[in-house]
Amino acid sequence: xxxxxxxxxxxxxxxxxxxxxxxxxxxxxxxxxxxxxxxxxxxxxxxxxxxxxxxxxxxxxxxxxxxxxxxxxxxxxxxxxxxxxxxxxxxxxxxxxxxxxxxxxxxxxxxxxxxxxxxxxxxxxxxxxxxxxxxxxxxxxxxxxxxxxxxxxxxxxxxxxxxxxxxxxxxxxxxxxxxxxxxxxxxxxxxxxxxxxxxxxxxxxxxxxxxxxxxxxxxxxxxxxxxxxxxxxxxxxxxxxxxxxxxxxxxxxxxxxxxxxxxxxxxxxxxxxxxxxxxxxxxxxxxxxxxxxxxxxxxxxxxxxxxxxxxxxxxxxxxxxxxxxxxxxxxxxxxxxxxxxxxxxxxxxxxxxxxxxx
Length: 358
Hints:
The chain is an alpha+beta fold and 358 residues long. The protein has helices at residues 7-13, 15-18, 22-40, 46-51, 68-83, 110-128, 131-141, 221-248, 274-277, 282-297, 338-353, and strands spanning 61-62, 92-99, 102-106, 161-163, 168-171, 187-189, 196-204, 207-213, 258-263, 268-271, 305-310, 315-322, 325-332.
């Protein structure tokens, strides 16, 4: 798909002429970056802003602690898919199961899980939920264009994915191939080896199953039937049970705070639900982004660091780092607590919810 040229494209095209050194390039890009940041924080671009939010869960894998009976069902399904014949001699080389933005299971390494989770959370999950999410994202990104032609099937673009009547997720096929029963899926490479694996998605309810298959090319109808036969009923039950658990438990929501906890050693995150983060003002998100950037500039190996900042709109933000773990905290409406008071609130929050980590 070929995009139209945007005003910033002309600016970028002349950078090579206007700036021949690193400092010059940085200066030339700064105004463009400032404009892009302002657009992300506008209310009409709220969905896109969540992707770039300093409290976004895409910093790692957002795991959902499950009730025992749900975990048993998830483990049983993953085990069946690993050992079963999925048609044409296929077996699953990797399994990941998600429920909306939460990860329930992954048989991959930490780094591969984090990479696949980021891809799934921004592409397969929106595709599985239908066109409503897609339309909101499309409205937020409609003004962002590329001067160059895009690949026919850009895997990182959720609009390149489709859900068929059998609830499989695949890349959108060319018009001439829409009648084919085979699914077009991308090839992925695991960081632990050089093997090429095909990524197949399947959904039931709010649950998304991702299988990595040792094959090349489209997925046959035999494999689709085998996966559906094994996964359809249990995945549907997992989706329903997980939805019920989330409805009765306020998972990750802590009243009065909006936060993000990142464990770099486990590539895992825990954060306020994104619908709660969406209630923050643009000024609070901007202040949190600045505090997070300041913390990153202070980064040293196993170094304890803390950044505390106050906005002009009755908002305090705190960014903490210790031993490979980070905590980002936004507190609105706390009044005149002062610097020491804000630091104590953050300290008590960390002790209560992430004991011994900070």
